[in-house]
């Protein structure tokens, strides 16, 4: 995905998000990396709702909702392709911040998104072999508030060395779960029935009768 697409995702996530939703393309990339890495498929209706913390936006038009979904699926597909087909070249979408000493990677948003995705996919708390558990722990260190004290105590060199291991950690987790696949995660359903003229639960932005009802 080019920078223009990432910038558009940033704009939409910030404009239509809330205090608990995903708010950047970096965080969304981490979210999707965990979703596609898990042991089971996650239905679009499930991950779409999780992006917005169960408060999906009311798009101004069907076209806007469709464009968001197209870019989101493109981002997810790129993560899946790189992790499966070109793991040695896998690159997460980290942020960069100039601190006066050159560019420093900011990985917290990507890692927080990854942890959210692993939670949605239902494998964040799964028992893992030691090396794979260490990969998950590294992402947790950078993505969860519990790791803030440890990160603050790191020197710049230690921090850089730690962040350099994040992408290999994501690849290791992906490869482990591909060898331990499980049944498809069922779609989470609300008690209320979806009406013919309600927004489709897949997040396309279309009415239900014009989309998945067909």
TrEMBL record:
Source taxon at top rank: Bacteria
InterPro entries: SEC_C_motif, YgfB-like, YgfB-like_sf
Pfam families documented for this protein: SEC-C, UPF0149
Protein name: YecA family protein
Species of provenance: Ectopseudomonas composti
């Amino acid at each position: 995905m080019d920078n223009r697409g990432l910038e558009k995702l940033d704009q939409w996530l910030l404009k239509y998000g809330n205090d608990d939703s995903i708010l950047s393309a970096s965080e969304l990339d981490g979210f999707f990396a965990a979703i596609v890495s898990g042991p089971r498929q996650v239905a679009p209706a499930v991950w779409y709702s999780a992006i917005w913390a169960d408060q999906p936006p009311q798009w101004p038009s069907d076209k806007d909702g469709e464009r968001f979904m197209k870019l989101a699926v493109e981002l997810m597909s790129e993560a899946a392709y790189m992790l499966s087909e070109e793991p040695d070249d896998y690159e997460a979408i980290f942020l960069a911040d100039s601190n006066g000493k050159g560019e420093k990677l900011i990985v917290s948003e990507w890692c927080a998104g990854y942890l959210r995705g692993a939670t949605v996919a239902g494998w964040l708390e799964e028992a893992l072999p030691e090396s794979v558990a260490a990969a998950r722990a590294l992402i947790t260190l950078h993505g969860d508030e519990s790791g803030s004290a440890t990160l603050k105590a790191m020197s710049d060199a230690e921090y850089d060395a730690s962040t350099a291991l994040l992408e290999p950690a994501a690849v290791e987790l992906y490869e482990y779960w591909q060898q331990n696949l499980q049944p498809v995660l069922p779609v989470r359903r609300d008690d209320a029935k979806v009406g013919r003229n309600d927004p489709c639960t897949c997040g396309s932005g279309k009415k239900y009768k014009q989309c998945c009802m067909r």
